[in-house]
From TrEMBL:
<dbReference type="InterPro" id="IPR000792">
    <property type="entry name" value="Tscrpt_reg_LuxR_C"/>
</dbReference>
<dbReference type="GO" id="GO:0003677">
    <property type="term" value="F:DNA binding"/>
</dbReference>
<dbReference type="InterPro" id="IPR011006">
    <property type="entry name" value="CheY-like_superfamily"/>
</dbReference>
<feature type="domain" description="HTH luxR-type">
    <location>
        <begin position="140"/>
        <end position="205"/>
    </location>
</feature>
<keyword id="KW-0597">Phosphoprotein</keyword>
<feature type="modified residue" description="4-aspartylphosphate">
    <location>
        <position position="54"/>
    </location>
</feature>
<dbReference type="GO" id="GO:0006355">
    <property type="term" value="P:regulation of DNA-templated transcription"/>
</dbReference>
<dbReference type="InterPro" id="IPR036388">
    <property type="entry name" value="WH-like_DNA-bd_sf"/>
</dbReference>
<dbReference type="InterPro" id="IPR016032">
    <property type="entry name" value="Sig_transdc_resp-reg_C-effctor"/>
</dbReference>
<dbReference type="Pfam" id="PF00196">
    <property type="entry name" value="GerE"/>
</dbReference>
<feature type="domain" description="Response regulatory">
    <location>
        <begin position="3"/>
        <end position="119"/>
    </location>
</feature>
<protein>
    <submittedName>
        <fullName>DNA-binding response regulator, NarL/FixJ family, contains REC and HTH domains</fullName>
    </submittedName>
</protein>
<dbReference type="Pfam" id="PF00072">
    <property type="entry name" value="Response_reg"/>
</dbReference>
<dbReference type="GO" id="GO:0000160">
    <property type="term" value="P:phosphorelay signal transduction system"/>
</dbReference>
<dbReference type="InterPro" id="IPR058245">
    <property type="entry name" value="NreC/VraR/RcsB-like_REC"/>
</dbReference>
<dbReference type="InterPro" id="IPR001789">
    <property type="entry name" value="Sig_transdc_resp-reg_receiver"/>
</dbReference>
<keyword id="KW-0238">DNA-binding</keyword>
Length: 209
């Protein structure tokens, strides 16, 4: 039996995936989790063969979690589950070690096919995401920028509408440091203002809306 973990903070999604996999031969859902912390703890104790992973979790973004899971259990195959279908997001997930990428509205057969594909050592893309990867438009060739923990905090606070001075007070840093981070973020996202960087960060799942 192929041991499978599912991590998603939406109970209906978890239940739907469990139902799909229960009807497939050779699969056993060994654990269901709503956040990254519980997932990592379980993998540290008994790694599954496959992890189905929602890339938008309340405590960490999927790109960072893929990296952590692979560090804990390199043999675990990871299939990202997402509502995002941008080239940059898909590409970055694979760069960090994901083995598959499936849209959340994919049919059950694609999910089962995806699991069988990755356990045989091959990458898997659902039909929608495969089409995006084929196009590779000029805009899509960008990867998700790598941002630091502090930069994510700046983005999160700025998304709440806080000013530079207010962010500095909340994070116990100087306004000059906040401005420096803002400048770095705009350069990393290749945009002219922080609002655009925040919008992209939300689209890429780096911060929550």
């Amino acid at each position: 039996m192929v041991s499978i973990f599912i991590t998603d903070d939406h109970p209906l999604v978890l239940e739907g995936l469990k139902n799909v996999l229960s009807e497939a031969d050779g699969f056993q859902v060994s654990g269901c989790f709503a956040n990254a912390a519980a997932t990592l703890e379980a993998i540290g104790s008994e790694p599954p063969a496959v992890l189905l992973l929602d890339i938008n979790l309340p405590d960490i973004n999927g790109i960072d979690l893929v990296r952590k899971v692979k560090a804990l259990s390199p043999a675990t195959r990871i299939i990202a589950l997402s509502v995002h279908n941008e080239y940059a997001v898909i590409n970055s997930m694979f760069q960090e070690g994901a083995d598959g990428y499936i849209q959340k509205n994919a049919v059950g057969e694609e999910i089962v096919d995806g699991i069988r594909t990755v356990i045989n050592g091959r990458r898997f893309l659902c039909s929608q995401s495969a089409e995006i990867m084929k196009r590779k438009t000029t805009e899509g060739l960008k990867s998700v920028p790598k941002v630091t923990r502090r930069e994510k905090e700046i983005l999160h606070q700025a998304a709440k509408g806080l000013t530079t001075q207010e962010i500095a007070a909340v994070l116990f840093i100087s306004p000059h440091t906040v401005e420096s981070h803002r400048k770095n973020l705009m350069e990393k996202f290749e945009v002219k203002n922080l609002a655009s960087a925040i919008k992209l960060a939300m689209e890429y799942g780096l911060i929550q809306a």
